[in-house]
Amino acid sequence: MQMDNFRNERDQYFKEIDNLNHPNETLVKTHCSYCAMQCGMNLRVNTKTNKIVGVEPRYDWPVTLGKMCPKGVTAYQQVNNKDRLLRPLIRDDQSLKGTKNGFREASWDEAYDLIVKKFTELQENYGKDSLSVYSGVSMTNEKCYLTGKFARVGLQTRYIDYNGRFCMASAAGGLNRSLGIDRGSTIPWTDVQDTDCIFLAGSNTAECHPTMMFRVWAIQERGGYVIVADPRETPVARRADLHLDLRPGTDLALANGIVNLLIENGHIDEEFIKNHTNGFEDTKELVKQFTPEYTSAITGVAPEKIIRAAEIYGKAPNAIVMFARGIEQQIKGVDNVSGYTNMALVTGKIGRAKSGVATITGQGNGQGGREHGQKADALPGYRKIANPDHVKYVSKVWGIEPEEMPKEGVSAFEMFGLMEQKTIRALYLLCSNPAVSAPDQNYVREQLKNLDFMVCVDFYLSESAEFADVVLPTTTWAEDAGTTTNVEGRIIKINQAQMPVGESKPDWKIQVELTERMGRGKYFSHLKTSEDIFNELRVASKGGTADYYGVTWEKIDKQDGVFWPCKDENDPGTPRLFLDKKFNHPDGRAKIFALPYRPSAEEPDEEYPLRLTTGRVVYHYLSGNQTRRIQFLRDMCPEPFVEVHPETAAKYNIDHEELVRLYTRRGETTYKVKITEAIRKDTVFVPYHWGHEKSINLLTIGALDPISRMPEFKACAAQIEKLKIKKVQ
Amino acid sequence: MKKRLYLELENCIGCRSCLAACTQCGGHEERNRNYVYDVNPLVNRQTMPLMCLHCVNPACARSCPAQAIQIHETGAVLSALVEKCIGCQNCTIACPYGIPKFDTEQNLMYKCDLCIDRSKDGIPPMCASVCPTNTLQWLTDEEIEAKQKQFNLDNGKWVTSMPYLEGETNVKVNLPGILQGVTKLF
Ligand code: SF4
Ligand code: SF4
Ligand code: SF4
Question: Domain 4Fe-4S Mo/W bis-MGD-type, which positions (chain A) (predicted)?
């Protein structure tokens, strides 16, 4: 391929459109701060004040063409928001932990000194591993990479993990196991509209990744099919050709049932199976049991619908299977991913344009952030701590001896367990808000409170910051430059549009300065800019599965992003995976997995007869720490609610908008009822973007997938109680 | 080439990005000027935008006693002129869709002006720029004609051209049911 003028594909929707330039303003090209669609946008910057004042569509971004959801349109309002933290905060009175009270402003020096003193003391008394780092992937690759190095080389602790355990870990586990590589999508998003069938499992696409919807609808306009598997009739399910309205937590049975029918109907690709896969015979044997009737009995989906879904997917010349948190946030999330991936593997609908498998990544940098060593068991380039060669390579890049590399740590949720046992005594939290997003909040908040010392780095005083002793003010995405890797596996560039607000600093700078004060500066001081970090990341990832070595910031700009793997300067990147039908297992074959069905950790019973499932609304992102502070989004959706089917509501004698008590074995709270026929009768749904007493995660369960260590947010057993009207005394 | 706002109601997912974007048009004082309705909220998630259709012979302007509502040369029916509007709200009552909104503090009407700073130069209005589903599009007459041919509607007409509504409009609307008549690929 000619590198010189290579540019990633533009599709039939691409139009040259001018931007409106307002007087005294300049436009800075960048991407949205929120989900992994990473929609292109221009930030409008006033040239007199040098402040961001608005947003202008970025029509020339080939993936999203100027489109944005309401979060993206208003994202810039995070930057100069009145809630920004301007200076470090210290709280001297530990008894106020868990509240907003008692913080005083401090200088960076004082805050750093305190952190260094506490961290050193704890490590002297309890060992290096008494510190922990809990990170996130709503930040650039540069920051994610450096955070891994910060924990292991700077703080010298084994305990680092990240919020991807609540987001992408099951997809990563399943794709690695089935395909040998965890790049979320095997195809670029510009293929989506041209496929003949899209099978969306556990994805509330219209609310969580709205800007891919025009591509989904275009499939139907061409006469293709949209199939949606979801317990709720979400906006995409409403218009789908087929809505498989399954019980939460039963995806694996549905996947097995469809694979069984694909085999029975002769819709399999025998050549492909023979030459490019392993495991077909075992799987064939196992799925035999999953007849439409048997599958229906588990999933609650009518047998005709299952038959029809298998027929459509089987007959489609090209088809894409996509899934998201709905199937992944289960104790069998990894199996669900492999189970649905089996559909593509038995039919050979993978490894070519317009056909493939994708997980629709949640967080903005959910892809890149899991590749470069923030995960308890991983090192940059998707290397593994358990592999001595990998440790050797990365140690060399970092300038340490392989023996100095800390061992594997534990997953995000399991860190709370170690806090309970006092193995972990201090926490450095950044880019995440577990006091809202983790399951079983009563337990989690207890552990945060019991820490000897906690640092929280954020640009707002989040619910988690309320547990901190020191809060460090960091920058929003628009005050720093760097790269993210979007839903497609395309590395893209975030540009700086404004100087940091107040005394806030980008996360990477804080980490460099802290390590210098901890006497580890020789490993960090050379990193003066975000681009310096990227260039180190390139070397650290070289030769790994997620190889970024050939990516440069310049190349990203020139090519409209670069798809990894990209091995050297002359490599334009890899928009489509497996075109040569070579998968990333050592024998080059994909694995078809025989996956026995197992129920959720907590199935409904007499006491708790309802299935509780949680999710998102279009107006909010993750824990809502950012979006709840933006007027338009708050106006559109100010508070959580519980969705109940009218027949279920009648049974409980509850009305639309009535306050009810919702409870599980772990916690309870009250919500307004939203009556809708767009949900199963045996299921209730609550969005999770709120904290304190409104958090649905007070009720969810901390049961984990054995491989991905992902909690089962999507299914637990619950009960509703009509609130007694209290008599006025 | 002249472009128009074109609506495909069946695509709408109710994200209200169009409303968010409306507040971001420089001339809109951060107030959104159109509507998105939940069609049947207790039953399903169907939604539809209700936008000013920029009537060729607009009832809002006709009803205005102060001639505050001007029609731009592009056909866009503009928001009331601040110095002329007397706050009588005749326009809201006269409009078959109740589009013009009212600012009670300033005693002023405000409505969609198709982001006139943008659309006068052929730049799409903010709503049609961001709409994630192509419910709102900014198309040439040829493109709209092609759409009309592609979607075989029951009544053979665009809804806004039906006699009992406002007659000719600059914005073209496709009824829910755009998939009627689509032949499946297999
Ligand atoms: S939140 Fe996601 S879909 Fe919405 S504008 Fe941002 S990147 Fe795009
Ligand atoms: S932006 Fe488009 S999809 Fe969203 S509410 Fe408006 S018209 Fe509907
Ligand atoms: S739709 Fe209503 S507000 Fe718009 S031009 Fe017609 S009459 Fe006026």
Answer: 25-83
